């Protein structure tokens, strides 16, 4: 369960506090377990400063607190405050990030065993998909379904979404893909070979929250090499 730490203090030395936090980030680089942090100043009371720090779990927050750099920065932070900072730990029970959830649901649906889900709850009827492996763009939900079924007919596969960055009406997903070549793929007969690929997909959302555009980038050359399609050229 995601865990959030709320840190409140009173200070007139916000610039010094920011420099202190920048120094701590440099010292704890690669070991800090927080995934996101926001610092805000109260509009009605400029001395009231609040920091919200997000962690994947309470256990990860504890790991972060146990870093020697954290103990040092707390002492220096307290010295910049007019009174002792207060800490509130919160278990997140609701998190409104619709774009990220839709992205992860979409990639899970593509790898779902059995029949391809209808996807009409995720994709706009006029969805526009651009894949460098295709000579033409794929336009419309029915054509997008056919494209996905082609991949599913050729491979047993699953996506692992490594990162999702979302802003406004767009999101970008970095993913890895693993599968087994079970059916015809671009004229290549089934080989039974395990294959893997990495890539990124940029997605744009319509006003109703459905995906209306897709831009795919992936290691198509590496995939063809794993399938043996380049063997003759490499001899």
From TrEMBL:
<dbReference type="Pfam" id="PF07366">
    <property type="entry name" value="SnoaL"/>
</dbReference>
<dbReference type="InterPro" id="IPR009959">
    <property type="entry name" value="Cyclase_SnoaL-like"/>
</dbReference>
<dbReference type="InterPro" id="IPR032710">
    <property type="entry name" value="NTF2-like_dom_sf"/>
</dbReference>
<protein>
    <submittedName>
        <fullName>Ester cyclase</fullName>
    </submittedName>
</protein>
């Amino acid at each position: 369960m995601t865990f959030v730490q709320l840190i409140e203090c009173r200070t007139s030395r916000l610039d010094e506090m920011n420099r202190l936090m920048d120094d701590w980030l440099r010292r704890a680089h690669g070991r800090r377990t927080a995934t996101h942090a926001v610092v805000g100043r109260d509009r009605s009371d400029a001395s009231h400063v609040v920091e919200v720090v997000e962690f994947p779990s309470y256990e990860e927050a504890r790991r972060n607190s146990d870093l020697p750099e954290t103990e040092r920065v707390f002492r220096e932070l307290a010295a910049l405050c007019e009174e002792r900072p207060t800490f509130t730990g919160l278990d997140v029970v609701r998190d409104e990030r619709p774009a990220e959830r839709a992205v992860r649901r979409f990639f899970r649906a593509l790898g779902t065993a059995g029949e391809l889900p209808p996807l009409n709850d995720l994709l706009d009827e006029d969805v526009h998909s651009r894949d460098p492996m295709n000579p033409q763009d794929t336009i419309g939900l029915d054509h997008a379904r056919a494209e996905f079924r082609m991949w599913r007919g050729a491979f047993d596969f699953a996506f692992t979404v490594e990162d999702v960055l979302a802003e406004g009406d767009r999101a970008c997903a970095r993913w890895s893909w693993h599968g087994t070549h079970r059916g015809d793929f671009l004229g290549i007969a089934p080989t039974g070979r395990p294959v893997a690929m990495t890539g990124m997909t940029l997605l744009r959302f319509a006003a109703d929250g459905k995906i209306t555009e897709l831009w795919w980038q992936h290691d198509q050359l590496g995939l063809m090499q794993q399938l043996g399609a380049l063997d003759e050229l490499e001899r």
